[in-house]
Amino acid sequence: GAASLARGARGLHVARRGLFDHELRPGSGNPATRRRPAAHPAGPCCAISDRGPAVTARTNPARPNPAHLWEAPLLLRILWAHETAGARPWYTDAALMLRLIRAGAVRVLRDARGPVAFIARQGPVVLALYVHPRRQGRGHGSALLEDAKGRCPQLELWTLQDNIPARRFYAGHGFVEIARGRGLGNDADLPDIHLAWQKECAA
């Protein structure tokens, strides 16, 4: 249940305000110690870029696939469309994006013009989930999240407490609150919420 998941996750996965919710320590698979609210929708403006499962059923977006290294600049554009310009050196985001793509942690939805949305996940931890502004409201965020749920029996992430649209989105996908923070561990210094989803066992 949620309580056991919370105990298992304590101290393991913490998000930071950088490229994604979690920044990897060099040479390890462990997240860094700074925390960042989960990124779909978790840009600074707290805007939701997806309408949830109902839109997924109506629009039937393409199946997510692994990202390619050559797509890194395109994925960074999607990321930066949701973030304040100059928040970090561009090469910091680029280096981490390339590391995550090489690790197979990034999956992408594409249209005829290229990537329109991506999710980054390390094990059960959703690191980031972003949708290009021109493709918002078409179910892409839901499609990426459902794809992740099909690949992992439990997921977790952080989001800001005042990001009501994000909290509603995740609640609609079965996520429940398992902990709250005062913002001491994230670069935004704003209260956040630890959310988790766990696949139900068949009776």
Offer a concise description of the structure.
This protein is an alpha+beta fold. It contains 6 helices and 7 strands; from the N terminus they run ααβααβββαβαββ. It has helices at about 1-10, 55-60, 70-80, 90-100, 140-150, 165-170, and strands spanning about 65, 105-110, 115-120, 125-130, 155-160, 175-180, 190-200.
Structure description:
The protein is 29% helix and 22% strand. It has 203 residues and is of the alpha+beta class. It has a 4-stranded antiparallel β-sheet with strand order 1-2-3-4. A hairpin with a 2-residue loop joins β3 and β4. α3 (72-80) crosses α4. The longest helix has 13 residues, at 90-102. It is globular and about 40 Å long. The two termini are 15 Å apart. Residues 1-34 and 39-59 have low confidence and may be disordered.
Calculate the mean pLDDT score and round it: 74
Q: How are the strands of the biggest sheet laid out side by side?
A: 1-2-3-4
In DSSP terms (H or I, runs of 4 or more residues), the helix count works out at 6
| Distance linking N and C termini | 15 Å
Q: Helix and strand string, N-terminal first?
A: HHEHHEEEHEHEE
Write the layout of secondary structure elements.
Layout: H1 2-9, H2 53-59, E1 65-66, H3 72-80, H4 90-102, E2 106-111, E3 114-122, E4 125-131, H5 140-151, E5 154-160, H6 164-172, E6 176-181, E7 192-198
Antiparallel strand pairs: 1-2, 2-3, 3-4, 5-7, 6-7
Helix pairs in contact: 3-4
Task: Output the keywords.
203 residues, single chain, four-stranded antiparallel β-sheet, alpha+beta, 6 helices
